[in-house]
Amino acid sequence: MHNSTNTTGEAMHPNVIPFNPEGDFYFSKGVQAFQRRDFDKAIKWINRSIELSPKQPLYQCQLSVVHTEIGNYHSANQVLMDVLAEFGHEYVDCFYLIANNYAHLGLFHDAMKYAKEYMQKAPNGDFKEEAEQLLTLVDIDEEDDDDEDWAMEEEDELMRYQESAFYHLERQEWQEALPILDDMTRYFPSYFPAKHDYAMALFFNGNQIDAIELEEHWKQENPSSIHTLCNLSVFYHLAGKPEAANEHIQQLRNVYPIHEQQQLKIAVTLAQVGFYQEAYERFVVLPKSKLKGHLSYYKWFSISAYQRGEPSRALTLWEEGCLRHPSLSQQGGPWDQA
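Now predict its structure.
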């Protein structure tokens, strides 16, 4: 390996070749950072290795694993989709990793689809047991599987919509989120979270009556929907209808979902309706490493901590949230949120 450049600031001899590390050098640094759970540095170094060696899909797959570990499931899947598009479907592990990310997002139909594709392409692959467990866990109705099966291009488009909507919703940019969510409900009618997010954006954009009517309609179709219970709890609470709010809050208090995204949604909802102690108890058991990408995690965890008499922890959470999500600093502080 070539000698490194002179670190003293002196001019280098013209015959000395400067050290120009290949991608594997930075990739190794990224893996080491990942093993130390220093995820920010891991992403930095692995991205650098990809810049130097863009034709090495292993680096991109490892980047997706880092994103998964910190809860950036959309970003992880986008990286994996890019690998499949550029290097072909022989990189079969991508199918399991995509399925796992979809399961965390609550997109169970898509999780099952990719898990099955992995099992078909690699029946004895490294993730065989994990894929089998995932297929057992994801219990959905597949009667119309062929009709609902989306092409890869459509799924890429859905992910772009998801990223855009998530960006605006986390920042409470309701007016910007509404047209994106409206398109999602029309173009991807079987992606049910979009319609609930649309109702939420509608409510906070000033159309409270329409938002409540939408959720009440969907409640008739699926009375146990976590999305509906959360939205109606918040809607009725903020609309000054405590009895109607309490009806849904009491149901929600007995729900303990498996997936982190749904766990976070319930914790945030309980904080929003003033059940700070119960919200706090839900937040403290959430896997922080998987939810760092959510501004709402830091915001409502901090508020819950402050309201239960832990101002120091509340401030620490808020400051960390502001570092990761600078727009949070524009929302005051945990002491301003009661």
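Residues 23-138 form a domain with the Serine Threonine Protein Phosphatase 5, Tetratricopeptide repeat fold (CATH 1.25.40.10).
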